[in-house]
């Protein structure tokens, strides 16, 4: 029931949801409570051991770009993984991975070989220039939407962690990062995909609802929908897909995400949250030219959902079975 690439680089259509869901039920008062889901688990916030880039691969080549944000406050390391296998006639599908350091750390040579045995995409890991999986200050700014009145959003527990820079990051992505990452590569520009987890998942949905022409296929894992009073849910109510080309979304979330972060929650359950996620996907699925579905990541907590959702995403795109 997933979205797969076939031999000519086109995609099979997502299966439709079995039950109807009303987007009107996804109002702030009807949603789950604020939790600490957007916090990376502590074990992920450690220096990275050597990974696929440092060790090298028999089936992928790598190139790295470094650049700073226009205000000089955030420093990016963009790692482009390029299949050694010849591209399809239409070009490689480019898959953009938010939290690129953590995303690459979740993959190994066996995953790359599995994709090489099918239709390998170009992986574009949008990371930060640090030896850790996450730059928690930078990602909170880059991946979170601003308030309508433009004021930055401050984390009371950690004032350094400001939010509200997602639109600036979308502009940087569109104007600079994508062109640099795809330079001189045979890319299928009609099949661009974006994956993100937690705040990254929130960014995926915000970009989808406000700049839908930027990508064609959208993968949002454990998105932090409660951010800024469920702002992204209001954006979903206004979303229309540009019907000049087909698009798709896959929403994913674990069924044990609140167990770890229970002390930060004031009610609700994983089942209730996932039912609402499913409703959102079903409502999006009704839009002309757009298909969406929701996938429960069984047994997964919030941190574990990162790697699992990434592998599901790459399986969808390449047609390979990644475990």
From TrEMBL:
Gene3D superfamilies: alpha/beta hydrolase. Its EC number is 2.3.1.122, 2.3.1.20. GO terms for molecular function: diacylglycerol O-acyltransferase activity; hydrolase activity, acting on ester bonds; trehalose O-mycolyltransferase activity. InterPro entries: AB_hydrolase_fold, Esterase-like, Siderophore_Hydrolase_D, TAT_signal. It is an enzyme of class 2 (transferase). Keywords: Hydrolase. It catalyses: an acyl-CoA + a 1,2-diacyl-sn-glycerol = a triacyl-sn-glycerol + CoA; 2 alpha,alpha'-trehalose 6-mycolate = alpha,alpha'-trehalose 6,6'-bismycolate + alpha,alpha-trehalose. Belongs to the mycobacterial A85 antigen family. This is Acyl-CoA:diacylglycerol acyltransferase. It comes from Kushneria phyllosphaerae.
């Amino acid at each position: 029931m997933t979205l797969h690439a076939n031999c000519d680089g086109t995609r099979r259509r997502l299966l439709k949801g079995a039950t109807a869901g009303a987007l009107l039920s996804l109002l702030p008062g009807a949603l789950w409570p604020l939790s600490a889901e957007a916090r990376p688990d502590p074990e992920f916030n450690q220096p990275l051991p050597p990974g696929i880039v440092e060790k090298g691969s028999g089936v992928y080549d790598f190139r790295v770009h470094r650049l700073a944000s226009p205000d000089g406050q955030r420093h990016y390391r963009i790692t482009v993984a390029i299949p050694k296998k010849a591209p399809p006639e239409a070009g490689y599908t480019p898959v953009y991975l938010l939290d690129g350091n953590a995303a690459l750390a979740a993959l190994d040579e066996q995953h790359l070989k599995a994709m090489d045995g099918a239709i390998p995409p170009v992986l574009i890991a949008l990371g930060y220039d640090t030896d850790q999986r996450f730059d928690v200050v930078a990602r909170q700014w880059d991946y979170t939407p601003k308030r309508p009145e433009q004021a930055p959003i401050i984390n009371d527990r950690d004032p350094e962690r400001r939010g509200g820079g997602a639109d600036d990051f979308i502009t940087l992505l569109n104007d600079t990062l994508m062109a640099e990452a795809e330079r001189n590569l045979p890319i299928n520009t009609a099949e661009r995909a974006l994956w993100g987890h937690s705040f990254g998942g929130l960014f995926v949905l915000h970009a989808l609802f406000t700049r839908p022409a930027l990508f064609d296929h959208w993968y949002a894992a454990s998105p932090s929908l409660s951010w800024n009073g469920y702002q992204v849910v209001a954006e979903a109510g206004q979303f229309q897909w540009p019907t000049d080309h087909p698009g798709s979304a896959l929403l994913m979330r674990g069924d044990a995400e609140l167990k770890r972060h229970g002390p930060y929650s004031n009610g609700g359950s994983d089942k209730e949250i996932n039912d609402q996620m499913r409703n959102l996907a079903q409502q999006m699925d009704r839009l002309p030219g757009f298909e969406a579905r929701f996938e429960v990541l069984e047994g997964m907590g919030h941190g574990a959902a990162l790697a699992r959702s990434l592998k599901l995403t790459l399986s969808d795109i390449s047609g390979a079975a990644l475990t």
